[in-house]
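> call design_seq(struct)
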């Protein structure tokens, strides 16, 4: 299902809907960002290390692990659904991705590939010696 139809259904019904989607329709950009059709979505509820604008080689390596984990989760899921949540102050599209009915944020946070995040929380510093995450699988 294209992002256009997701947006159209959201507009028609006024509430976010969990819409089925195929793994083949999703392109993983990084550990917390996907593309569906021509629309890029920032996934809500978690923050993964950056790969595009990483602050250090360590963050880049962690970001690649998180990206690969998200791709594996999507590839292995039998059922996938996306819930469009509009856009943020930077005009990025926001969404929640469900795999087997579970929020992908939980599936990324629990094993340590990401940390919980909301728009008001400070972002994780992945390169600082005090908060450096080295235990990612």
């Amino acid at each position: 299902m294209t992002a256009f139809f997701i947006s159209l259904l959201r507009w028609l019904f006024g509430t976010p809907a969990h819409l089925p989607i195929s793994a083949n329709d999703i392109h993983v950009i990084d550990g917390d960002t996907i593309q569906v059709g021509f629309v890029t979505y920032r996934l809500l509820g978690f923050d993964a290390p950056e790969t595009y604008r990483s602050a250090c080689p360590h963050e880049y390596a962690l970001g690649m692990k998180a990206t690969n984990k998200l791709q594996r989760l999507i590839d292995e899921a039998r059922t996938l659904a996306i819930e469009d949540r509009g856009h943020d102050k930077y005009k990025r599209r926001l969404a929640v991705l469900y795999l087997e009915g579970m929020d992908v944020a939980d599936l990324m946070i629990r094993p340590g590939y990401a940390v919980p995040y909301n728009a008001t929380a400070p972002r994780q510093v992945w390169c600082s010696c005090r908060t450096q995450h080295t235990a990612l699988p």
